[in-house]
Amino acid sequence: MCYNILVNEKRNYTAMWENKDIKKILISEDQIRERSRELGAQITADYRDRTEPLLLVALLRGSVPFLAELIKYIDLDIQVDFMDVSSYQGTQSTDIRIIKDLDTSIKGMNILLVEDIIDTGKTIKEVVKTLLHKGANEVRIVALLNKQEGRKVDVKADYNGFEIENEFVVGFGLDFNQRYRCLPYVGVLKEECYQVKE
Ligand code: IMP
Ligand code: MG
Fold first, then answer.
1. Out of 22, 127, 177, 186, which could bridge 27 as a Cys pair, Cβ 3.0 to 4.6 Å?
2. Residue 181: nearest ligand to its CA?
């Protein structure tokens, strides 16, 4: 009874954004959960026999919901840390700048970078370079989304959630001007929502 009320409330809440600003839902909450479960199992199998600890480095802020979903399915003795690098201003890619660095010393560690989406690839490529320079033993990448068409540098995720078309998406952590991160799904924003009002 109570459960039904909660589900209905959630549906209404989701529908509010859908009707207002979202053109179409690309990837549902259930699909994200299922894919995260598969990726978590794959990561667990791949790292099971390693003796060095595994550090998951999540890039703020967009990868936080994906990190939270993914780690439920990684059955290993992992640690988590965060980095914040500048990425998009509006819908244009910009050069990266480190805003928040890691708190963990990563010398000799195996790192799994957790990213929401790889587009041009510039952000993640720079981050990988920085982490190796700091003495990481190995850096792999897990990304929820991949926009292959947008690629400008040669980089690819070792673990890839979903391939998507070259269109701007929001939800499940991904934002447009800091909005829409709370959507439980990944969706395409209506074009009129890009027009920034003063
Ligand atoms: P890249 O350096 O072009 O690969 O940019 C990756 C970063 O840009 C991601 O971490 C996102 O923060 C942002 N980004 C790229 N595409 C999108 C999108 O479609 N929606 C929201 N953010 C995006
Ligand atoms: Mg990002």
1. 186
2. 1
> β-pairing, 98-100 with 169-170?
unpaired
> What whole-number distance in Å separates Cα of residue 65 and Cα of residue 172?
6
Is 21 marked active-site? Answer: no
In the structure encoding, which two tokens stand for residue 87, read together? Answer: 């990425």
Q: Which atom of ligand 1 is nearest to the CA of 119?
A: 4
pLDDT along the chain (198 residues), means of 10: 40 64 94 98 97 94 98 97 78 70 94 97 92 96 97 96 96 94 94 70
Q: How far apart are CA 180 and CA 190, in angstroms?
A: 12
Phi then psi dihedrals of residue 77, to 5 deg:
-85, 80
The residue whose CB lies within 8 Å of the most ligand 1 atoms, and thus the one to mutate among 89, 117, 180, is: 117
